[in-house]
Amino acid sequence: MISRWKDNSNCFRMKTIIALLFCVTFVAAQSGDISFVQKALLSGLRTVCRFKVGASLAEEDQIRAQDFANFNEKQKCLIKCMSDMFHFTNEKGEGNSEALHRLLDPVIGKERATEVDNTCKNLGADLSPCDRVAKVYECHAGMNAVFLFENLF
């Protein structure tokens, strides 16, 4: 009984952390800047995802450097984990245009956000979820539209 409560408690804590991080990131996107505290919270979420997929700090640094040609499966799944946490993608790796626009529109404008979304959202439809999200992330980076991920990684 206690073990089950502990599992539910951990799940609740994780969902609470994710909700808080989403709110912090949304506010940051509205202001166009992310504060030190917000970066620390995002770093915590990155750590959760890194442990979840088994990625190393060096692999995370490679994502930050946008070394796409050499990404391994753990790195791709780390990007997917972060995207999932912010509801940019679902478990299949499909994009959520509404969530993307909610965060991109205030920063790069609705027209530019629509261009980014339309250009990138259908890439990698035949790939695994992690590969697909990594391909979309690469597209966003190529269009200079990874403002949020620059702070996430």
UniProtKB/TrEMBL annotation:
Keywords of the record: Signal
Q: Does the keyword Signal apply?
A: yes
| Any single Pfam family the record assigns to this protein | PBP_GOBP
Q: Keyword Signal, does the record have it?
A: yes
Q: In Gene Ontology terms, what is one molecular function of this protein?
A: odorant binding
Q: Which organism is it from?
A: Liriomyza sativae
Which CDD domains does the record match to this protein?
PBP_GOBP
* Gene it is expressed from: OBP6
Q: Signal peptide location in the record?
A: 1-29
Q: What is this protein called?
A: Odorant binding protein 6
